[in-house]
Amino acid sequence: MLKVKSVVKTFGNLVAVDHLSFQVEDGEIFGLLGENGAGKTTTFRMILGLLEPDSGTVLLDGKRIDYTITDKIGYVTEERSLLTKMTVKEQILYYGALKGMEENEILKELDKWLKHFEIESYKEKKIKELSKGNQQKVQFISAVIHHPKLLILDEPFTGLDPINVRMMKDAIYQLKKEKTSIIFSSHQMEYIEEFCEKLIILVKGKKILDGELEEIKKSFGIKKIEIKAKDVNLSKLKEIEGVKEVVEHATNLTVFIEREEVVPKVFQLIKKYDVSKFEAVGSSLSDIFIEMVGKSNE
User: Fold this and answer.
1) Which of 171, 212, 231, 277 has the fewest CB atoms below 10 angstroms from its CB?
2) Amino acid 298: pLDDT
3) How far apart are CA 151 and CA 72, in angstroms?
4) Is 108 helix (H, G, I), strand (E, B) or coil?
């Protein structure tokens, strides 16, 4: 289990991380979200032991993060950190050795992951000869070759097509089954919604929202209605009290509302038309993120 307790990190007058606390259980995938500059990378660096907090503590299985602990952590960075003149085999042997692994153990794990990602033939290829997507796979392998206790994933799907996204998802779920604690960060909210049961949103280093994803979404209630109907009188629809905005799409309408009580009012108008779809929809994580971050930046 990872525990981050009231961590603060400043750089001169800039408070990069402001009394941040959270914990990630064994086998849990935890979302850490925020705009660029929100403090995510600084938080990751403190967890990795690369930066020392001004105050607060970071504990992995009850122990402070130091060089005796960092071998238990894996990190997939947003920017690739591969040595491009090395072959895939040389690269993974290098990273595995840094984590204290024996060569035969590294090669056994490497063959397993190359098979999973269907790139067995690339073992002796140089990193620079690989596509961006295949480089991303190698970067992931380098982060998990040592069976980390904690894995930090920062935009892990960069450069991957849908087929390879599925392979990466399967790999992440496998690590979850093996009780790896995973911190997941992405600007693609659909991935956060798929993977994470709990999350935190940061703004300027401070936590503005945290908790279980489903509870957070319930607390925001119904905020829009998806409608498919013919020849709807949009002017009448917009005049309904509590309707904030009506957006026309190619085949449907999205009606944004202030509160759930507006849904029956909209239905009373819409039912007069040839309706094939009327669905009240809760806020997506993307909607929640935009609303909360927008309020905090006002």
Assistant:
1) 231
2) 63
3) 9
4) helix
Q: What pLDDT does residue 66 have?
A: 84
Distance CA(37)–CA(290), nearest Å, equals 16
Q: What six digits make up the tokens of 84? A: 């491009």
3-state secondary structure of 199: strand
Label residues 161-190 b or e (16+ Cβ within 10 Å = b): eeebeebbbebbeebbeeebbbbbbbeebe
User: Measured between alpha carbons, how far is 249 from 211 in angstroms, rounded to an integer?
Assistant: 33
In this structure, what are the phi and psi dihedrals at residue 13, rounded to the nearest 5 degrees? -90, -5
The 3-class secondary structure across 73-107, one letter per residue, is EEEECCCCCCCCCCEHHHHHHHHHHHCCCCHHHHH
d(CA 96, CA 126): 17
Residue 217 corresponds to which amino acid?
K
Total residue count of the chain as it appears in this document = 298
Chunked into runs of 10 residues, the chain (298 residues) has average pLDDT values of 97 96 97 94 95 96 88 90 93 94 97 97 96 94 96 93 95 96 95 95 95 91 91 93 93 92 94 93 89 81
